[in-house]
Amino acid sequence: MLLAAPAAAAATPSTDASAYAAEVGRVLEQVVAGQAAAAAAEMRAGGLDSSEPEIYRDLNQQPPDLADAEARLRALQAALGAPATGGDPCDATRATSPRPGTASGTGSGIGSLNSWTR
User: Cβ neighbours of residue 108 under 8 Å, at least 6 residues apart?
Assistant: First the structure.
């Protein structure tokens, strides 16, 4: 299951973020209540049908996939509530770079020697 929540959250203007989040909450309430048709109508009225096509498709299937729609809406709600951060691009490099002294890293030391002799 792929989630489009981060893209939708990024595409939502900050001035409309609270209205968008409120609309997501209303649709989620209807999905939890098992009201797929009402949730789809709410999505159309609020414009979520074009920004969240996977959820809208879930609601319009025969039978509706309420479990997937709920999971996607909850993920979207969490993404909308999460603070936007840029992050440190160096963190990704540090996390994937081998450590010196390991078999895949550069450097000298007992760890490199042991891995070389095995």
Answer: 101
Give the start-to-end residue ranges of the domains of the chain: 5-81, 87-118
Which residue carries 């649709």 as its tokens? Answer: 27
What own/partner pairs with CB < 8 Å and gap ≥ 24 does 55-58 have? 55/27
Tens-place pLDDT, residues 26-69:
999 999 999 999 999 999 999 899 999 999 999 999 999 999 99
E strands, the chain, where? none
pTM exceeding 0.70: no
Q: Is the peptide bond before 13 cis (omega within 30 degrees of 0)?
A: no
